[in-house]
Amino acid sequence: MIAPKPTTKEPALDTLVKVDNLVKHFPVHGGLLNRVIAKVHAVNGVTFSIKRGEIVGVVGESGCGKSTLGKTLIRLFEPTAGKIIYDGREITHLAHGYMMPFRKHIQMVFQDPNSSLNPRYSAGAMLREVVRFHQIVPHHETRDYIRELVAKVGLHDDAIEKYPHEFSGGQRQRLSIARALAVRPDFVVADEPVSSLDVSIQAQILNLMLDLKEDFDFTMLFISHDLKVVNYFCDRMLVMYLGYVVEELPCGEIEHIARHPYTQALLGANPASDPTQRHELTVLEGEVPSPYNPPRGCPFVTRCPLVEPRCSQEMPPLLENAPGQRVACWAVNPQRTAAAE
Amino acid sequence: MFRWTTTRSARKFFRSRLALVALFIIGVYFAIGTAVMVLGWTSYKYDPQQRVGMQNVPGFFLQESPEKRLEDVEILLDQVERALKKPNADEALQDLSMGQLQIAAMPHSQMQEVVDEGWKIYDALVVHEDLAEDPDLLAKLDELEGIAGSLFPPPAGWRKYLRRAEMLLGTDRQGRSIFFRCIYSIKIALQIGLVTALISVVIGAVLGAVAGFFGGWLDHVVTWLYTTFSSIPNIVLLVLIAYVFTGTDFEDPRAVEVFTWIDEHIPLFPVYIAFCATFWIGTCRVVRGESLKLKRLEFVEAATTVGLSRWTILWRHVLPNTTHLMLINFSLLFIGAIKSEVILTFLNLGVKGEPSWGLMITHSSSEVVTGFYWQICSATAFMFVLVLAFNILSDSLQDVFDPRHN
């Protein structure tokens, strides 16, 4: 199973990534003149920061905008509004050429190992392209460097000559990790890296990522829909719902400290690890509202068990509730407003 | 990077027997086409337009009906007699040569005697209407043919085999060798097929990939372009282009000069232009669709994350993943071009001056009504074998080039 997480954490860490009120809307074209008829509100004003060396998890059900958040963060999508500050420099709207130095530091591990590798490129060719493009090592050392890299992600030497279809899903994900780490990045966005793998392989990959984190010393944004995995794997987590961060809390004892009704519902939906120890299921009613047309006020208002009249009027601000914990809920922070803070 | 094309896929390809046979046949066609082209530059060239025998002789040295044989002898004797009466009799007689059959080297007076003797037997035979039923008459017909044949003694040595090859599939209405015309048509067919398929695939793939990958106004322009082009009927466009390239109606003398030069040196230029103008559409459409799909795949996003430029991603990650489409389209267009050439030639807009299967099929339209099928069958058979071989080859290439197929 998953190796024990290193408990010793450096106390003072400086901020590597700062996201300020990030918004990403996708226009929907339609009608006779192909005009913008609607917007998909994928990410709605997300604010958070990641300290150097930290693993921050993003959880939420599918369609809540967590992948969009990750992809916008590394500038695969153009942000609609807000700011992304990486290592003290704003990269929100940098053009391709200016973005280039950051590309070397920011990498991504993709969700689907079947489509994240070019079927025409052997593992070696794929890694060679990345290494040579960024000139990570001198030209003549490329071969050894790649061999070392492939060994580090736990693959055999002969994998270098193989093509993606010759690997299993787990091996492909290892290759995907190898590509992300080939440039020795400082920041890695892992977009559901284990969600398409078997449970046994998931544990292997997660362990590998922890090992590599020690080795390569990077900061990570870990996106997943699996609350348990995030709770185990990360230092902090952001719970997203319909493009909003509804709660931010430190990982570890989330069963006891989670305050937002959505986080509690997610916890309640998790099966207990001990089948004899039954717990009460909190089943959410209704469906996730359409991101085309999100409800007024709090996004969770349509399904919330603690709903108040105020909820459908005004979006609750994300307020610090306890050290390291922020909750956006009127029921949890009844008297406080953003202005009062 | 392309190691798998040289080892694994190659092994897979060579395991498929049918594909090998197809490849062999295509190879033979290409060898013949090249040989014909190369021989055309030397003094050993063979003129497929020359007369090699009487008109509409059947192939495989089959016997004709007695009436047709009698008629052929009549024409032959008549031609020799007329030539003898001309003031420049020697030259006129030389003009009667039929391919490898040269006129006999004998004095004119002796030749006249032979002709007179022939006429005598002919007069005796022509009054009978039931030649086929009387063995005596048939024996006389054989004798008559022998006399006529003595005017054209059969060639000796290796020319004997050439003569056999000439008559292998019979002759057309002008007495030209069908076999050699079929062989010579390979060159034109391959030329049209290769040039148009290559150019169309390159244009289509590049435009399609660019449109699909970059989207936006580029996509709009390309989509508009191919819908416009596909809405123009192929044939009408060709008529227009062919007419323009005759170049006679221009007021500007320089334009006339240019177009006459093209007409002289690249007579198939209008055909190429017309085919390419419409053939790229299919490739463009499928490659555009594929690159629309590919650009959403995560390996393209990964390449963006690495920092590769859009053009590099297009060139290295998107286009190589459409090669199977290009190959399939290439073989389809190759076949399509060969087939369209027949139609265009039938409309008298295609190949002129050189033998082509289309031209042969066009010519045979007047023979089929008289019951002579050798020309249309031979031309069609030659075309069919090439088209079939290309179909089989493209099928197996499709399997081989798909890396997910194991």
Would you write up a description of this structure?
The complex is a heterodimer of chains A (341) and B (406). By secondary structure, chain A is α/β, with parallel strands linked by helices. Chain A has two domains: 236 residues, 3-Layer(aba) Sandwich (Rossmann fold), CATH 3.40.50.300; 67 residues, no CATH class. In chain A, 26% of the residues lie in helices and 23% in strands. Chain A has an eight-stranded mixed sheet with strand order 6-7-8-3-9-10-12-11, sandwiched between helices. In chain A, strands 2-1-4-5 form a four-stranded antiparallel sheet. In chain A, a hairpin with a 2-residue loop joins strand 11 and strand 12. In chain A, helix 3 packs across helix 4. Chain A is globular. Chain A starts with 14 loop residues before the first strand and ends in a 14-residue tail after the last strand. Chain B starts with a helix and ends in a 5-residue tail after the last helix. In chain B, helix 9 packs across helix 16 and helix 11 packs across helix 13. The longest helix of chain B has 37 residues. Chain B folds into two domains: 256 residues, MetI-like fold (Orthogonal Bundle); 93 residues, no CATH class. The chains are: A alpha/beta (341), B mainly alpha (406).
CATH architecture of the largest domain in chain A, by name, is: 3-Layer(aba) Sandwich
Cα(first) to Cα(last) distance of chain A is: 44 Å
> What CATH architecture of the largest domain in chain B do you see?
Orthogonal Bundle
Instruction: Kindly report the CATH topology of the largest domain in chain A.
Output: Rossmann fold
Name of the level-1 CATH class of the largest domain in chain B: Mainly Alpha
**Cα-atom radius of gyration of chain A:** 21 Å
Strand content of chain B: under 5%
Largest sheet of chain B: none
Number of helices of chain B: 18
Q: Give the CATH H-level superfamily of the largest domain in chain B.
A: MetI-like
The largest chain-to-chain contact, stated as pair and per-chain residue counts, equals: A-B, 33 and 23 residues
Give the neighbour order of strands across the main sheet of chain A: 6-7-8-3-9-10-12-11
Please state the structural category of chain A: alpha/beta
> What's the structural domain tally of chain A?
2
N-to-C CA distance of chain B? 19 Å
> What's the gyration radius of chain B in Å?
28 Å
Tally of extended strands of chain A? 12
Q: How would the global form of chain A be characterised?
A: globular
